[in-house]
């Protein structure tokens, strides 16, 4: 299934990209995606699907726009 | 007294006189420093109703017990006065070598009174104070003023100065230092200008009294190294605060077009990745191992030091998606000594008011060249438009009428920082109850709201989070006086700060003691507000009304169709008041004031306004 993955802030220096279309196996979870793109599992982060927060165990669906961001604290 | 020098330098510009005063240990422990010293002093010494731009106002530079001591990130000073923008206590903090130098000169606080009869620079070197004519640099920008000072005294001195904005009493003028540091959003630079004080230069040469200098040295230097290492691992300072822009864009929290929109397809053009790619230099405050000043070249070739707030408010909020052009506006704000955030909101409000027919004019969103021109006019109060823009968005809205106050993006007169809370209730509360007006410095809970609670919630957990962060960010870091970024962005443990405090003072305080001081300071700022505005009401803690307007809802994107709900917001506000021990107006009750040891301060408000039991 095709998903658009956006990586935010300094996490892009871990993944090597800030935006990419990925082809993932069906039922991939958020946690699996984060590992696939090279972000250490213990790295604090917030992941959103179409602008809304998702949990690590949530499954990704075809056409989702997933954004992975560090936990910012707003300057 | 260890930790504190125990001295205040009081300078009177009218009389060209100065004296060194002492303060008691009780004062030190009750107010600690920085914001605490400033709020107490201004409350005691300013009569309610004075003109903030008259000689009766006082300008304060206040330090904390770890200022000037090498430890993570202590190179900051608090500047404060009665605000000409909001009409009550206003302050800010900025990175400056003046923090270390003032402490080494032997002072924890500088109070500047009166007004000079001609442009003046104050030069302080230990016990010596000189009043130096500054006519040569009056009318010049902060960068030229810095060069003039450095040519006289060398680059190592501490400098606080103003640009044309402060000189011309622009109500959002700030105080500036170093390459891109600025503080005092609610017009504290205009207070300095009203005193014809172009610059304060400080050189201190003496040791700072500390209870355990060896322990402090080991902890301070060791921790500076550790914070630097953590930052290398997280990579935070590569993009620094500019990295948050795509997050805000993603979740519908970016200010676009005077906050009308919450995201934009072109926002990536000014995001942290592009700002970092355009970087030509990095600047920062003294005593910092995670320097965050991403510096780029602007459209005219100047160096311009960026952070998220100025990128968002001078970029997308004006529908400018070009780094050099946005950086030009930022450079001009820095050179004129204007607050980048308020200026972004003022320009966007002006364009929006024209757009909505509230006023006639020729400024449109996206017009960077006209924005530069307007900025110059505002800094110099040139003509009718320059004078109007120099007043801030609330006063402009009152002049325009036609319901424009609803979309003047401010709370209590201070413009909103760069987070669009059209549908972020807890952060809207954080702006509503920020002590000095809509500042982001005191509480930022957007990630918490989106990740740990439901965004739709107006529950007490959000009020509790705002209070928790106010105690840390608006309290601890503002009275101990150090930069909050090691903790907030790189996870440097909070427990380190009582450790530094105890090594400096010889006391044995924990975080709970810090929260008491923080609550005391918040109550004091509220008393200031009440004394200046005896008709204070809970509506003063409401955010801009446009965030509640269904007609303003996004038509697409993550928060399509959603806006804040007024009755629910009011309920959230009540949670905040209940947890704080404030009455229905948002004013601390007598019982709350008593529990914080503020009996005398409560009595001082009673000739002007009533307090609830
Ligand atoms: S992190 Fe940034 S604001 Fe904080 S002390 Fe360092 S340079 Fe200054």
Walk me through the structure.
The complex is a heterodimer of chains A (75) and B (613). Chain A is an alpha+beta fold and 75 residues long. Chain A has a single domain, classed as Beta-grasp domain (Ubiquitin-like (UB roll)), CATH 3.10.20.30. In chain A, 15% of the residues lie in helices and 29% in strands. Chain A contains 2 helices and 5 strands; from the N terminus they run E-H-E-H-E-E-E. Chain A has helices at 12-15, 30-36; strands at residues 2-7, 19-23, 46-49, 52-53, 65-69. In chain A, strands 2-1-5-3-4 form a 5-stranded mixed beta sheet, with no helix packed on it. Chain A starts with a strand and ends in a 6-residue tail after the last strand. The mean pLDDT of chain A is 94. Chain B is an alpha+beta fold and 613 residues long. Chain B has a domain at 7-203: 4-Layer Sandwich (Aldehyde Ferredoxin Oxidoreductase,  A, domain 1). Chain B is built from 25 helices and 17 strands. Chain B has a 6-stranded mixed beta sheet. A 4-stranded mixed beta sheet of chain B has the order 8-7-12-9. In chain B, a hairpin with a 2-residue loop joins strand 16 (410-411) and strand 17. At the A-B interface, helix 1 and strand 4 of A face helix 8, helix 9 and helix 18 of B. Iron/sulfur cluster binds next to loops of chain B.
Give the arrangement of secondary structure elements.
The complex is a heterodimer of chains A (75) and B (613).
Chain A: E1 2-7, H1 12-15, E2 19-23, H2 30-36, E3 46-49, E4 52-53, E5 65-69
Parallel strand pairs in A: 1-5
Antiparallel strand pairs in A: 1-2, 3-4, 3-5
Chain B: E1 7-12, E2 17-22, H1 25-31, H2 35-45, E3 59-62, E4 76-82, E5 89-95, H3 97-104, E6 109-113, E7 120-125, E8 128-133, H4 142-153, E9 158-161, H5 164-167, E10 175-177, E11 181-183, H6 188-194, E12 197-203, H7 213-234, H8 236-239, H9 245-251, H10 272-277, E13 279-283, E14 293-297, E15 303-306, H11 308-314, H12 323-336, H13 340-355, H14 368-380, H15 383-389, H16 393-400, E16 410-411, E17 414-415, H17 425-433, H18 446-452, H19 460-481, H20 485-490, H21 496-505, H22 511-532, H23 566-580, H24 590-595, H25 599-605
Parallel strand pairs in B: 1-6, 7-12
Antiparallel strand pairs in B: 1-2, 3-4, 3-6, 4-5, 7-8, 9-12, 10-11, 13-14, 14-15, 16-17
Helix pairs in contact in B: 1-2, 2-22, 11-13, 12-14, 13-16, 14-15, 19-22, 19-23
The complex binds iron/sulfur cluster (SF4).
The site of iron/sulfur cluster has 11 residues of chain B, from loops.
């Amino acid at each position: 299934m095709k998903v658009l993955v956006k990586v935010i802030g300094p996490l892009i220096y871990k993944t090597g990209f800030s935006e990419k279309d990925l082809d993932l196996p069906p039922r991939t979870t958020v946690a699996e995606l984060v590992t696939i793109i090279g972000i250490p599992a213990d790295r604090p982060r917030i992941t959103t699907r179409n602008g809304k927060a998702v949990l690590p165990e949530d499954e990704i669906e075809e056409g989702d726009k997933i954004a992975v961001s560090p936990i910012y604290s707003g300057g | 007294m260890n930790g504190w020098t125990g001295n205040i330098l009081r300078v009177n510009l009218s009389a060209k006189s100065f004296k060194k005063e002492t303060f008691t240990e009780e004062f030190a422990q009750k107010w600690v420093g920085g914001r605490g010293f400033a709020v107490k002093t201004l409350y005691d010494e300013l009569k309610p109703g004075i003109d903030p731009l008259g000689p009766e106002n006082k300008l304060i530079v206040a330090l904390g017990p770890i200022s000037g001591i090498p430890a993570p990130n202590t190179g900051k000073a608090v500047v404060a006065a009665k605000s000409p923008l909001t009409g009550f206590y206003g302050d800010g903090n900025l990175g400056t070598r003046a923090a270390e130098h003032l402490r080494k000169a032997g002072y924890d606080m500088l109070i500047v009174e009166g007004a000079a009869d001609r442009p003046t620079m104050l030069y302080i070197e230990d016990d010596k104070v000189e009043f130096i004519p500054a006519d040569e640099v009056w009318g010049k920008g902060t960068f030229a003023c810095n060069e003039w000072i450095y040519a006289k005294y060398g680059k190592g001195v501490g400098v606080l100065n103003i640009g044309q904005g402060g000189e011309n009493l622009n109500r959002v003028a700030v105080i500036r230092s170093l390459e891109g540091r600025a503080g005092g959003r609610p017009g504290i630079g205009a207070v300095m200008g009203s005193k014809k004080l172009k610059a304060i230069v400080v050189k201190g040469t003496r040791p700072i009294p500390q209870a355990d200098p060896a322990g402090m040295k080991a902890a301070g230097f060791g921790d500076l190294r550790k914070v630097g290492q953590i930052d290398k691992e997280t990579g935070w300072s590569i993009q620094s605060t500019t990295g948050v822009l795509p997050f805000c864009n993603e979740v519908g929290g970016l200010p676009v077009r005077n906050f009308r929109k919450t995201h934009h397809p072109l926002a990536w053009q000014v995001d942290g990745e592009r700002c970092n790619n355009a970087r030509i230099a990095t600047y920062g405050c003294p005593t910092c191992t995670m320097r965050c000043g991403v510096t780029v070249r602007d459209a005219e070739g100047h160096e311009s030091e960026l952070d998220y707030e100025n990128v968002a408010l001078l970029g997308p909020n004006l529908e400018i998606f070009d780094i050099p052009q946005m950086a030009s506006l930022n450079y001009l704000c820095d050179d004129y000594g204007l607050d980048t955030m308020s200026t972004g909101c003022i320009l966007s409000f002006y364009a929006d008011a024209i757009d909505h027919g509230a006023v006639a004019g020729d400024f449109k969103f996206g017009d960077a060249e006209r924005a530069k021109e307007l900025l110059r006019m505002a800094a110099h109060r040139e003509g009718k438009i320059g004078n109007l823009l120099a007043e801030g968005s609330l006063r402009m809205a009152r002049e325009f009428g036609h319901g424009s106050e609803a979309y003047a993006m401010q709370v209590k007169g201070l413009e909103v920082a760069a987070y669009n809370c059209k549908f972020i209730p807890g952060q809207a509360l954080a702006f509503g109850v920020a002590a000095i007006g809509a500042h982001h410095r005191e509480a930022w809970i957007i990630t918490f709201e989106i990740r740990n609670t439901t965004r739709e919630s107006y529950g007490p957990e959000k009020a509790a989070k705002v209070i928790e962060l106010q105690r840390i960010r608006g309290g601890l870091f503002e009275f101990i006086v150090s930069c909050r970024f090691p903790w907030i962005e790189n996870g440097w443990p909070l427990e380190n700060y009582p450790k530094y405090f105890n090594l400096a003072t010889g006391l044995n305080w924990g975080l709970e003691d810090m929260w008491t001081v923080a609550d005391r300071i918040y109550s004091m700022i509220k008393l200031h507000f009440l004394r200046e505005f005896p008709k204070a009401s809970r509506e003063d803690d409401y955010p801009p009304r446009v965030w509640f307007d269904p007609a303003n809802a996004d038509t697409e994107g993550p928060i399509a169709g959603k806006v804040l709900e007024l009755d629910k917001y009011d309920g959230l506000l009540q949670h905040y008041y209940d947890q704080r021990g404030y009455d229905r107006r948002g004013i601390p009750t007598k019982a709350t004031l008593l529990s914080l040891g503020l009996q005398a301060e409560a009595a001082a408000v009673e000739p002007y306004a009533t307090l609830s039991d």
